[in-house]
Amino acid sequence: MPAERQVRMDVATGGFLTRSGGLSGHKAVGTLYLVMAVLAGLIGGGLALPLRIGPDASAAWGRMAIDHGALMVLFCALPALVGGFGSWFVPLLLGAPDMAFRRLNLACWAGVAASFGLVVAGVSTAGAMMLWCAAMLGLAINIVATALNMRGRGVGLGAMPLFVWAQVLTAMMMVIVLPVLAAALTRGLLAGAGTDVVARALRAFSGPEAGLLLLPAAGVICQLVETFSGVALRLRGAALGAMVVLSVGGASVWVHDLFAIGLAAQPAARPLAEQAVMALPMLVLLAAWGRTLMAGRPVFRVPMLWAVAFMAMLIAAPVQTLAGGGADAHALVLPAALFAAFGGFYYWIGKMAGGAYPEWAGRLHVALAVGGSVVGLLPGGVLAGVAMQGLSMVAFVAVLAVALLGRHRVTGNYWGAGARTLEWTLPSPAPRDSFAGFMVGGAGA
Question: What share of the chain is helix, strand, coil (3-state, %, to 5)?
């Protein structure tokens, strides 16, 4: 592994686009995904209050519910975890200079951004979803091609960090499920079903959606646990196997959310089996993370606090399943994925922007977001929970502004000895053409 001083230093260190290799560079595209995710989260979060306060059967409320779900899952959580962190850090963790198809990467972001604009404008939700499927499918192919063909010297498949494996398995899952979702939307549009087909398709998509959210989130948590425990991940083989099972099994759970409202002609054991497909791999991952924390000396900085919150949500999900059914447990998946996304943001923001965040403000953000999620689940706690989550977003925007201003600069490896992956050998912010001198073609590595 090259030391920080060995990385090419004859690179531009000017503005963001210069450092990122132009608008089609993987760092610039990853940042565009993250910006869109923040905007979608703010808009979707704003829709949460009227939805939580007064559900009714009106068409306007139903449209608002569809838009809220689409914004939070399809344009906030998934673009942040896969498009944002995937585009930014899959090449860096592999020692690659960029994604395999850099122009395709920018084109895919443009497709997702266009579909986001269509949903916000209320023009054509079904058409927007079809465009989203095509763009995310292109991103998935790009991630797999990058992992298979762009690995640097000495980075074999077995040596890839679990974060990269999680991205690859998520991409493979997308290749399986997104054409099915697009076909369902196309059939509904041709039949003139309109908004109804979007609602039915998204309800059926809730099973694969859970896997698509949990897989990249688990990859981020693996990075955090290794770094802040100070030791390599224990039970790595079991954790990777669990991710494979979650990827393959999650792609087959298509109607999970419909069991709560009754699904005709289904075996009684099927809901339990499909829940087990999702739950058992996460239990294995929890065991790996727990054993790693016990083997090391964990330091609970802000990213690690988000990881603990993510684990708590995973533990709470089976309890919710036993107490209130699968739909309640499914509602915990999105907050858990967002917790992992925030953990990744605090972990990598210095590498992306070069500036440090204020620790106290990050801890306040964690407390408000986690507290709001918990309070919102309590009887009579909806308003208080939504208010706390709104305040948490204010804290997040303030933290983001401070980090981007960069008054307190960070070093190349500001997390210390626990951060062992390749991105920590680079200066902060990561320069243009990172690892260009070490690229040898990963197919034979």
Answer: 75, 0, 25
Enumerate domains of the chain plus CATH numbers: 19-258+271-356+406-422 (1.20.210.10)
**DSSP character at residue 75:** I
* Pair of tokens at residue 303: 């990213």
User: At CA 150, angle to CA 111 and CA 13, rounded to 5?
Assistant: 75
Please give the Cα distance from 94 to 193 (Å, whole number): 45
Q: Are 209 and 200 in contact (CB under 8 A)?
A: no
Query: 150: Cβ–Cβ under 8 A, 6 or more apart, which residues?
Result: 91, 94, 96, 97, 98, 99, 100, 439, 441, 442
List pLDDT tens digits, range 233-278.
Answer: 999 999 999 999 999 888 777 655 444 444 445 555 555 666 677 7
pLDDT digits (tens, 9 = 90+) for 369-413: 999 888 877 777 778 888 888 899 999 999 999 998 878 889 989
Helices (H), 23-161: 26-53, 59-69, 78, 85-94, 102-121, 125-149
What backbone torsions phi and psi does residue 409 show, to the nearest 5 degrees?
Answer: -80, 155
305-308's contacts with Cβ under 8 Å and 24+ in sequence apart are 305/343, 305/363, 305/366, 306/224, 306/339, 306/340, 306/342, 306/343, 306/346, 306/366, 307/221, 307/224, 307/225, 307/228, 307/339, 307/340, 307/343
CB 434 within 8 A of CB 426: yes
User: Is 279 exposed, middle or buried, given 0-12, 13-18 or 19+ CB atoms closer than 10 A?
Assistant: middle
